[in-house]
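ingest -> validate -> predict -> emit
validate: passed (alphabet ok, no gaps, 109 aa)
predict: started
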Amino acid sequence: MEPAPEIVASEAAREIAVGALVVDVREPVEWDAGHISGAVLIPLGELGSRVDELPRNRRMVMVCRTGSRSGYAADALHGAGYDVANLRGGLFAWTAGSLPLEPDGGYVL
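emit:
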């Protein structure tokens, strides 16, 4: 199986700005500390049972703290025919690029 494409934070920000859905696969405590505006939280362990919540007709950017968990999720979804990319370096890369998290002052746990 071919892996899902990976994109850097600046590319992810551009895709989000034009309508890509951000799917955050971290745990709720990590999400509460800080997340990308407009993202939806589906912890990796719940993804299989919640896959029907994901759009088939919309680009998705998968995110986690480092890009590892979201990479697994992106690969699985890509293999199932979804239009998906993984954020390389995760939210650490996102914040290193001075991109914002919610709430204001949010951080990567």
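The radius of gyration is 12 Å.
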